[in-house]
Design a protein that fits this description.
The structure is a single chain. By secondary structure, this protein is mostly helical. It starts with 5 loop residues before the first helix and ends in a 12-residue tail after the last helix. The protein has one domain. The model has no long low-confidence stretch (mean pLDDT 84). Keywords: Membrane, Transmembrane, Transmembrane helix.
Length: 68
């Protein structure tokens, strides 16, 4: 999947909405909006970093020599 392509944006929005709703609905504290937003943004950033690392080695022309 191309980083910041169409599919990445769609998956990021879906991840954000799911994480936000899970934290917003299940929280009774007065700062539930802030906590839900921070958790959702952290989830999207983690997803983007994971995809960046995954795509970084995808087109590697020189893989390790003794890789099992």
């Amino acid at each position: 999947m191309k980083l910041f392509g169409k599919n990445h944006i769609i998956i990021s929005v879906i991840t954000f909405v799911i994480l936000f709703l899970m934290n917003y609905i299940g929280n009774d504290l007065p700062d539930k909006t802030e906590r839900a937003l921070m958790t959702a943004f952290a989830g999207v950033i983690g997803l983007s970093l994971g995809l960046f690392i995954l795509n970084k080695g995808k087109n590697d022309k020189n893989p390790p020599q003794n890789f099992d």
